[in-house]
Amino acid sequence: MTHYHHDVRLIVAMVTALSSLVSAGALSDDCDKYFNRYTTGVSGVFSSPNFPNSYSSLLRCTYHFDPSANGGVEIKFDSFDLEDKKEGDKTCRYDYIDVFAIDSAGLRQRLNRFCGDVIPQTIISPLSKLEIKFVSDHWFNNGRGFNGTYRFLGQDYQPFDHKPSACGNGHLSGVAGFIYSPNYPNSYPPSVNCSWIINVPENKSVLVRVEDLDIEMEPGTTTCVYNSALRLYNGYVSDFTLATLDWCGNLSDYLAPDLEHVTSTNRTLIRFVADSKKKGQGVHNSHRGFKLMWMAVTVDEECPDFRCKGGRYCSGGGLCKPLNRYCIPKQLVCDGVYNCGPYDHSDEQGCTWEIMIMAACIAVPSLLFVMIVILVAVLYKNRTVYKSASQEQPLANSNSQGTTSRESFSSNHRQMMVHTSFIDGTGAMSFDPDNDPNNDITDIDQETTHGLFSPSSSNGYTSSLRTHKKRPSYHMMQQSYEDSTMVVAQI
């Protein structure tokens, strides 16, 4: 019983001492620190409680960094000494700091956790605000804690090299635009280092869509060779920040959804690097680079601007997925660009220019058809007039050429002229039925005479005339009687 009461008193004493320690630590250390561009300056220092001496146990300290709207935060540690991880511990469960990025809506995103005595690399918040939370457990520790510097970054902060003469303007803002590789659509230089910063209005995200791509890639793989790639970074970054996305090769190497990305912030950085060199020797480049479109969008359910209709995208394998229904600015509707995407043209449907193009597509062929009809009618009329006039022209008479001139005959003479062209070249022959001993011409072929006259006893013709079909190798002449005149024409 005595031992039992002794143990109880010991436990109570330990709990009381621990509570006193916690209260003392909480009261003695002011752990919440606030840093703002306007109150504490563009840059400054921060440190753990009691630095450079050992920090206390059971600490919960928070450091708030607010660069104001459209800004970033850069954190550099000069000294770092916390309790290290124990064997088998992979998450720094004892003493540590957590680094959070906070967006304009107050949503927190943990970037990393640090412990031990290794100085962390420079931290840059991808969002507008940054928060550091320092936690120590109940065990005493002789670690000195940490100290560092902060710097608020402006919209024009550029962590990479950029040459405007080769790459163009490196700071882009507004609601939409395009970015091209140097010399596009011609080949880009063998060595390129360009970066473009994109800022869109607050509470918007940046939609980036690759519309053309031709960058070196290892054949048969998806590896970008010679450090050549188009890279996307989310928010504010440093020179050691890993890219969110890399693109190289051609458009055909990617599915359509993989060629666009929506950032979680209103700021993004696009970087294009190319180093086509092998063993110090320049390599001829025949790749044209890229064309990229960027745009301010929102993905919220409420859309005060224009909501894209979306739809479905189906790959070659038959797999289909819904397209994003972006909310895009109203000024991008009917601007001649398919801002909703290559498979969603809802922002350009029913526009004036589209109606004009459709009207032109209908009107132009119709006008051409009418012109062709008019032209054919005119040509046909001219040909008819020409043919009628040619029939009235006199035929020239030339015995040397085997032609017969137009002659006038009296109906009472019963005289007929037949012109025959023989193969043996004997020329023309005049034929008079009154002088021919074989003057029976009643056997004239009905197809030849075409009903011009019929043999009978009244007109003096008999049926003993040989037909033209009995004469070899000649051309018959067509005769017609018209007003007691015979018209002779060569067939």
Automatic annotation (TrEMBL):
Domain CUB: 31-153, 167-297
UniProt keyword list: Disulfide bond, Membrane, Repeat, Signal, Transmembrane, Transmembrane helix
Signal peptide span: 1-24
Transmembrane segments: 355-380
Alphabetical list of SMART domains matching this protein: CUB, LDLa
Transmembrane in keyword set: yes
SUPFAM superfamilies (UniProt xref): Spermadhesin, CUB domain
Coiled coil regions in record: none
Region named Disordered: 390-410, 446-467
A Pfam family the protein falls into: CUB
Top-level lineage group: Eukaryota
Protein name from the UniProt record: CUB domain-containing protein
Originating species: Elysia chlorotica
Lineage of the species this protein comes from: Eukaryota, Metazoa, Spiralia, Lophotrochozoa, Mollusca
